[in-house]
């Protein structure tokens, strides 16, 4: 079938959610295909936690033991060129889906984040910040040939440059959360209750490293993000009732944070078992 015929076929396919609730919609399928069927400029915020292309026969340390990195077929690299082409396609679809006042957040490690940053620059996004999320008790490096990987990066960007900045940034709220001083791009996390909070505003680091036990009550995802990370992102860059999209939904962490904060959520994933898990999590928040 020609590319044109395929595009027509996709366009004709009705957009039927896999599941929905009062403030959320979940779709099963390829995020590029689906996002391109949504109306343009619909979302206030997109959070993307894409494949990091890590599942390539390597090893990591889990609970003190050597374990192979196997997160799923979706996480296998297809080579630098093909991985980059995929990145460009989903970023383009995000750019199309965002309102001019909206922003995109993308998480990643060195395995993917430079690829994402380069693609964003080429596509004309305006980079706003690169936030460092520090993981103080990251897994040790088994090979002892590298420093221990203990950070993830979050690129925050507007879909297009504009003469005057249009993006939402709840500056005062972030400042207040940081003890009255401007919040830096290395985050701490005032909500865990696990560390002493002096709110000194001196760039203390984000120290929560993993979802809490109750966040896995309905099951888990191999790369599940902590809800607190998404709460910070959503509070910083959206207002109440904002429309939020996650094109790599996973266990639906973005949706959980969105609903908790009174926003509306759309999630996309290839895998129905992750959408089932998400539905349980979102319905529990809605209750
Ligand atoms: C890194 S995980 C996201 C984890 C999520 N942030 C969480 O907290 O659970 C990426 C997810 O994207 C999905 N995925 C990968 N490629 C996709 C594609 N082309 N379209 C839709 N979903 C995709 C995978 O099934 C996986 O669940």
Describe the structure using short key phrases.
10 strands; 287 residues; binds S-adenosylmethionine; Rossmann fold; two-stranded antiparallel sheet; alpha/beta
At CATH level 3, the topology is Rossmann fold
Large-scale geometry: globular
- Class, according to the CATH hierarchy? Alpha Beta
Q: What would you say the CATH architecture is?
A: 3-Layer(aba) Sandwich
Largest sheet: 8 strands, mixed
Estimate percent helicity.
25-40%
Task: Characterize the structure shown.
The protein is of the alpha/beta class and 287 residues long. The chain has one domain: Rossmann fold (3-Layer(aba) Sandwich). Helix content is 30%, strand content 21%. It has eight helices and ten strands. It has helices spanning 3-12, 31-35, 80-97, 113-123, 171-177, 227-237, 253-260, 272-286, and strands at 19-20, 24-28, 43-48, 59-62, 65-68, 98-108, 126-134, 151-158, 243-246, 264-269. Strands 1-2-10-9-3-6-8-7 form an eight-stranded mixed beta sheet, with helices on both faces. It has a two-stranded antiparallel ribbon with strand order 4-5. Helix 3 crosses helix 4 (113-123) and helix 7 packs parallel to helix 8 (272-286). The protein starts with a helix and ends with a helix. Mean pLDDT is 87; it is low at 190-206. S-adenosylmethionine binds next to strand 10. S-adenosylmethionine (SAM) is lined by residues 30-31, 49, 51, 74, 221, 223-225, 248, 250-251, 253, 268-271, 274.
